[in-house]
Amino acid sequence: MVGCGNLLRGDDGVGPVLVRHLWERGVPEGARLVDGGTAGMDVAFQMRGAQRVVIIDAAATGSAPGTVFKVPGEELADLPPLQGLHTHSFRWDHAIAFARWALGEDCPTDIAVYLIEVAGVELGADLSEPVEAAMELVIDRIEAEYLADLRPAPETEVTVEFTADGYLRLDAALAASRFPSDAVVAVVRDGDLWLIPLRGPRSGGLLLKQRNPAGDRSLLIREVIEGRVGVTGAFWDDAQKSLRIPLREGPHDAPEPPG
């Protein structure tokens, strides 16, 4: 995933901002995020050897702000010659043409471009509301079309461990499939400990800390577990989008999922 644009010029920075949001959500193994900025020629070389490439950039076509265009890479096969181009006028479409010329067989054949129509590109401005809303839509599409298949398959019934030093431990597969951003809210409700995933650290909440090289995660919740130690069952509540860990049962009892 490559986000192109100028962060200093309002909606023109939507590509790099989108890449930052994806990074906060957690990047699965096999995916790579690149802040392409305004360096189009560097973007071309970042494509080397990739199987699939998604480029996100701003557009100024005169359409309504926030309009999203998806351009298949194969439609950009016949572009104007590169003669006369220089780094200050190098755009995403030039980057694709240059990559085909410079990388040869190492240039990916599956390239898609998402363009988001800008409302304004004033120096120092934030993203406008329509562009920010469109960015969220594109994030959801990228997650569904490109990233979801790279994440571990989530399980409904799992086990977690309460440790003697007051931590809750989640194994790597559970953390990666349900809490890819490592940011959570932990709350006791109806006799269960609920772990609710957040979109990223900027959303607040607590951070899951990496426990070992295998990627297991741990969360300090000594105030909640009240001396509980051991492995216990948990289940994913899809309606509430949270992991529920019953506290009324023994640490080795597996709960029955709802329904």
From TrEMBL:
Keywords: Aspartyl protease, Hydrolase, Protease. Transmembrane segments: none annotated. Pfam families: HycI. One of its GO terms (molecular function) is enzyme activator activity. GO terms for biological process: protein processing. Belongs to the peptidase A31 family. PANTHER family: HYDROGENASE 1 MATURATION PROTEASE (PTHR30302), HYDROGENASE 2 MATURATION PROTEASE (PTHR30302:SF1). This is Peptidase M52. It comes from Mycobacterium gordonae. The lineage of its organism: Bacteria, Bacillati, Actinomycetota, Actinomycetes, Mycobacteriales.
